[in-house]
Queue: 3 jobs
Job 1
Amino acid sequence: MRRLVPRHWRTLLPIMVVLAGMGTLVYYAAPLYDMFCRVTGIGGTTQRADAGTQTQVVDQKVRVRFSTQVADDLPWTVTPPKTVTVQVGERNTVFFEAENTSNEAIVSHAAYNVTPLKVGEYISKIECFCFTEERLKPGQHVRMPVQFFVSPQMLKDSTTDDVRQLTLSYTFFHSANPEGAKDLDRLDTPQTSRQPENGGQPDGDSRG
């Protein structure tokens, strides 16, 4: 004899399935949106390029400013490089300076974006401390390189062809996933000069 399913279960089961689906969607919404932004450049998210990426250098320059913020509970100080003027399509390397002011090793993660937001898809980074979780030892001070270029495609986009200044911003937080963090020792570069590499020209003493 076939067992009859109580009427209230026939109502509750579809609701439970819908709620479970909504919970799964909420759980994955943030990482999926983050991935979408990284691919499309929406929200000022910059792109990541391989070291072998070839770009055409064009006769147009853009002024690039740098900005850093550190969460109140993170005992780090991070100093951005000076503002530079770079050639579109040319690789440039600048250096950020970071120091752990505490007496214990600290792992941090840097969130990043670019303004104006509309140029995000045209700014590519080849090397950056923001790619991974990073560890600084107690009292350690390092210089961290960021290698980037501005894509010539920005000049062909009618919504961005008028941009002549942009800002790369980084906000440092305590890492929520310290396992697998890398030591910033590997990026540290002796301070022989504050000049940006590969053509970028510093603009006076301006910061940020």
Job 2
Amino acid sequence: MSARDAENGVKRDSKRDAENGVNHNFARAVKESNSENPVKKSKNYSIIALMIALFVSIFSFQLNISMLSPALASMEYELHISQVQVGLIQTVFFTSAALFSLFLPRLADHIGRKKVLLGILTATVIGSFISAITSNIVILSIGRIMQGSSGPMMPLCLIMLRERVKDGKRYARLMAILTSVNGGIAGIDALVGGWMSSACGFRSIFWIMALIAVFAVFLVIYTTEESKAVNNAKMDWFGVITLSIAFLSMYIAIDESQKLLNARFWIIFLLVCVSIVFFIIFWQIEKHISNPMVSTNYMKHRRTWGLLSTTLLTMTGVFAIMNGVVLKFAQDKISGIGLSEALVPFVTLTPYAIVGFLCGPISGFLASKYGYRRVLRSGILVSIIGLLCGIFVMKNPSIPGLAALSVLLGISYAGVANIMLNGLGIVLSPKDNPGYLPGMNAGAFNLGAGLSFAIIYAIMGMFNVNITQLSIQSSSSISASASSNAASNAVQNVITVVKSVPSCSSYVSSMIVGAVLLVGAILCSLWIPKSED
């Protein structure tokens, strides 16, 4: 062996030893780093199992709305309460859902989303149990408040899905599947609720709600992972309280304005002033506090106001149309079709829910390919076309026409626009505060629902017509022995009643107003920035 070969051999051996030493040192460093900074190993949860858990959780919330709606008349009869009191119980639930939606997603960022989801599911179980066993309207209202804690179920589940599914296109498709249950499962839950109410009483519905929520609890425990935001600062409870007061005041003011001519306008004015004052206080708190619920920089950003204004106007333009005007038109024997109450859902809400449920996954696929904003604007645009076609239906009442209108709005709003608005609330949220925008977006949904009835019904009322009806009151003073007196009393008990009822112009005006509001929604959607995904 030459001296040169020996020298090369030594160099190769030294190089190999050095590389082995580096590899050994690197492995040892990783091992030491892992021992110093232990990370909790994640269980290999299946996406399918996660989707089932989140789907059942969302469904348990949706049952509080869709399944109970057909049982309201049964509640009135079995509890011996008035229609106004039944309406108050429903208002309590929706108000509770709106308030909890404002801050629970943000609280979940701090203490863990799985913990909060299990907490609201447990509250739903307890609330359902209380509502099922009580005969006291006050206790029933408490039960409904506890059920209302599930209001942020949708945004919370979508955030948990986003934490697990990082790919934006895949998330869009899965998100649409979850959001499609937001209107019920193709109307079947509402039909089952009506059947159970007539066969077993309204209490049976609350027992079903409790069982579904218990099932959701077990699924969440065993198939989901805990997640929270990186920022572990303390919760801004002063911001929560002031924002809740501002929101609640505005919500009650809107609810009062729905009474139209019977509304107490001084109360509405006072509540609006209270809402403005507390929102200013909330703004000042968020500006100066170190750990704000919502940074004022975020509130100024167009991702916030662009999305919230679009959600508000979209809900205002559509919600009362499908959940009020169309149903009223279907039963109206003077200017509408004159269907019986039992047939109305099969022509309106059932086809609306079916197509919305089926179109959800399709809209998610389109969003993954073309983007949320483009699909959202397409859905709103088709909704505008649907309302303009609704003018023709209102002028030419027919069952096929009304069913076609319901299907068109089911596709465009329930199957597209509603899903895109929920999805944008998640994908536009900043990484250091993922809970604020979904919570505020849920508040915009609730405010829009209330404003929709207030605005559209107020416009409809301007075109109502007065009709004269004869009303025969029961006469207990009629004597069988005096036929002449009986005849006289019978005449005296026939009274004339002047009643204000919707005209064809009333229904047409509602369609026009809804379309105008949706045009505003499209314009506001131009402010929505492109998501980072």
Job 3
Amino acid sequence: MCHWRRSQNANSYQPVLVILLLSSSVTMCHCRPLLPNHLVDQDFINAAWLVTNTKMARTMLLGDQRFHKRQRRGSVVALESDKWPNGRIPYVLSSAYTPQQRAILARSISAYNAKTCIRFVPKTLTDKDYIVISKLDGCFADFARVGGKQQVSLADECIEYSTIIHEFMHVVGFIHEHQREDRDGFVQIRWENVIDGASADFEKLSAIGLSNYDEPYDYFSIMHYESTEGSKNGNPTITANAPAYTNLMGKSTDFTEGDLKRVNRAYRCHNILLRRHPPVPATPIIPYNAQNYYNLNNRPLWTG
């Protein structure tokens, strides 16, 4: 830095070089750059690099749905006031997620883009109703559209494709399949094996205000618990009336056809209802307003 000092001749100045030492040593910053509060192009590109054929157990989902304006009830949201207008769900994403975690989130959102007319979009200044996706405490989501800011907690142990799909289904307006009002014709709850304090997750709920959209009970729904979910002793908490299904239910790692039909009927996704649903595309669908953020040369080569 250059300063000027008055010389002995009061009418002239001489330049003096002053070196400011900001610290006693030069240090390197290894801080991770702050990631944007929404997914960007590179997150969706990275999603295509994830290995998708590795079978992973779904995270335990007890207590993962929260209800606000309404009592617990039903199967799939039917009241228009509880739906997201035009299937558009604005979101804000915490900067705490790593690039790999963002890629898994992007893969999950790509599945909704490909198979439904639901669109998770970055929140704008004019959006009053929106979700905040962050690492709070485990895996849970507010049910349907609450109004204003609502929470989706996806902690580190929840960042797995099928778990994210499941939690986003709560946001869309789905409750657990085994809580349908007609569930007694298909499953039995073994209350003696349920963890103390978890009974609310196994209650049968009234169908008032919701609908099954003419879809039968689905043992394989992404919204169905496994047979030992919430067990305090390792024994089943849910058994199928048709015994062959007991060890199969709740094992899905993606939407079933029944799940998709109900989403698309609830939100009137007519064009999608006319076609069969392909697997998640190898080239993920990128939101129209995504931005480039990462350097392609630094693209991670992930294996899971």
